[in-house]
Amino acid sequence: MKAALIVAVAAASIPLAASAQGTYPNTGRDLAASCAICHGTNGVNAGGMPNLAGQPQDYLARQLRDFRDGKRPATIMHQISKGLTEEQITAVSAYWSAQKAK
Amino acid sequence: MASDFDRRAFLKAIGAGTAATAAPAILTACATAPAEPAKPIGRVIVIGGGYSGATAAKYIRMWSERRIEVFLVEREAQFVSCPLSNLVLGGSRQIGDLTIGYEKLREYGVQVIRDEVTEILVERKRVRLKKIEDLAYDRLVVSPGIDFQYDLIPGLNNPEAQKTVLHAWKAGPETVALRKQLEGMRDGGVYILSMPKAPYRCPPGPYERVCQVAHYFKTAKPRSKVIMLDGNEDIVSKKGLFLAAWNDLYKGIIEYRPNQEAKDVDVKGMTIKTEFDSFKGDVLNVVPPHGASLIARQAKLITANNRWCGVNWQTTESIAVAGVYVLGDATLSAAAMPKSASMANNHGKLAASAIVATMTGQPLNPAPTINNTCYSYVSDREAMHVDSVHRWNPEKQALEPVAGSGGVSAQRSELEKQYADAWARNIWADTLS
């Protein structure tokens, strides 16, 4: 009984500890939501934009880095990608990659 | 829902219970999409179905996996987009192109209620409505938009005057009526747009509007003129790009007058009075100063300059009232944050993330990051943008523009017009379907 209680307390404290360390679980989800104004909910394009949902993570991350580093020309993405951290690029690419393309 | 009668009965039934114990059987019967979970973990009421409120409603349902009940209270039958509404004045879009129903939100299980909240009872966590009984909430989202301060322009401070001199700064019937005034104007006439001092809704909007009216004049009434009276000392947004468009496309049509804040309007004489000057026109378009809508004032959510609602930008929770989240143009903007549709939509997501986390006992996003993208159409063929990225700084407890990011178009282009159209399709879908 006592052991079970300790386990339960330890388990309950994990999300708090993780949060303090900055490993928030929904970084990719939340950032993808911000990009949805142009790219559609969950990266599913609603018309006139490339579909991000279901693309390979490496491909998506590389495009963001190439925009940021000036290797891929753009009208706007070179400006927006400079606002993202490496951690955010990895997280948002992983999120889109895991979404179903419609 | 089938009819007003059904809806009333339905709301009476669930309104009578507490927020946490609404009857799931009724909800399941009413929804068109997958069944509700057996027991909702709480209820969120959203006041106002614009870009921010509708987005919050949808994303709370999505991210809570339908475990949080969401009621969206909206007084209008349909959503009409302010972005692109200047194109109705220019003639390249119809208002119907910008009008979208709320049906698709119901597929997420959002209960869309066509009514108006008349009072927020903060202590009792309830809202009072015009048509139906009070509703209880666990969290409240206030996204009411703006009201105009007509008391600052005495000649317009009556309903008759406001039928003649329009703002058309909320898209809908006024947009269509202003277009009709422009169509009815003689060739050789003068259209005047008067804008208040910043902050106001949509920083580049006025400069886009004079482009669109000039575009219409250039093609249909080439002897006519556009005068812009700006309450600000200079062009507020995309200055170089707008100056280039005016010079290249509308030379001799658009006259820009900075530091000309409207102090009064003589409606009979069709004259706008500023501090030292008077401007007579054939079509007057006066956008008065504005602030958060009345319901925000009544709930004591206004904290800044007697006009705007201060929020914690990590979560959008009001700094005045706990458990109430304020979104959209009613807020006191964070540093370098425009009052735009893109920002409003993203406010909805900041709120959804924070509300779902709080109600499900999960951690908050420690560094939420959102981006703003605003396109302006300078004609029926070309557009240009401004964008920025904003990140929560936990040390400073402030949402700040990320250094080195953001910017404006290198030049206006037909390609960016295509992107602007795509932005509209995607943000409408993201907000409402």
Description:
- The complex is a heterodimer of chains A (102) and B (433).
- Chain A has 102 residues and is mainly α.
- Helix content of chain A is 59%, strand content 0%.
- Chain A has a single domain (26-97), classed as Cytochrome c-like domain (Cytochrome Bc1 Complex, Chain D, domain 2, Orthogonal Bundle).
- Chain A has five helices and no strands.
- The longest helix of chain A is centred in the first third of the chain and has 19 residues, at 2-20.
- Chain B has two domains: 4-147 and 291-363, FAD/NAD(P)-binding domain, CATH 3.50.50; 150-288, FAD/NAD(P)-binding domain (3-Layer(bba) Sandwich).
- Chain B is 30% helix and 25% strand.
- A five-stranded parallel β-sheet of chain B has the order 5-2-1-9-23. A four-stranded parallel β-sheet of chain B has the order 13-12-11-17, with helices on one face. In chain B, strands 24, 25, 26 and 27 form a four-stranded antiparallel β-sheet that branches.
- In chain B, strand 24 and strand 25 (383-393) form a beta hairpin.
- In chain B, helix 8 (205-220) packs parallel to helix 9.
- The interface between A and B is large, with 35 and 46 residues.
How much of the sequence of chain A is in beta strands?
A: under 5%
Radius of gyration of chain A: 18 Å
If you consult CATH, what is the topology of the largest domain in chain B?
Answer: FAD/NAD(P)-binding domain
How many DSSP-defined strands of chain B? 27
Low-confidence stretches of chain A: 1-21
Question: Any idea what the CATH superfamily of chain A is called?
Answer: Cytochrome c-like domain
Q: How is the secondary structure organized here?
A:
The complex is a heterodimer of chains A (102) and B (433).
Chain A: H1 2-20, H2 27-39, H3 57-68, H4 77-80, H5 86-97
Chain B: H1 4-16, H2 24-30, E1 42-47, H3 51-63, E2 68-74, E3 79-80, H4 86-90, E4 99-100, H5 103-107, E5 111-114, E6 117-121, E7 126-129, E8 135-136, E9 139-142, E10 146-148, H6 159-164, H7 173-184, E11 190-195, H8 205-220, E12 225-230, H9 239-249, E13 254-257, E14 264-266, E15 271-273, E16 278-280, E17 283-286, E18 290-292, H10 294-298, E19 302-304, E20 308-309, E21 311-312, E22 317-318, E23 324-326, H11 341-360, E24 369-377, E25 383-393, E26 398-401, E27 407-408, H12 414-432
Parallel strand pairs in B: 1-2, 1-9, 2-5, 9-23, 11-12, 11-17, 12-13
Antiparallel strand pairs in B: 3-4, 6-7, 7-8, 10-18, 14-15, 15-16, 19-20, 21-22, 24-25, 25-26, 25-27
Helix pairs in contact in B: 3-11, 3-12, 8-9
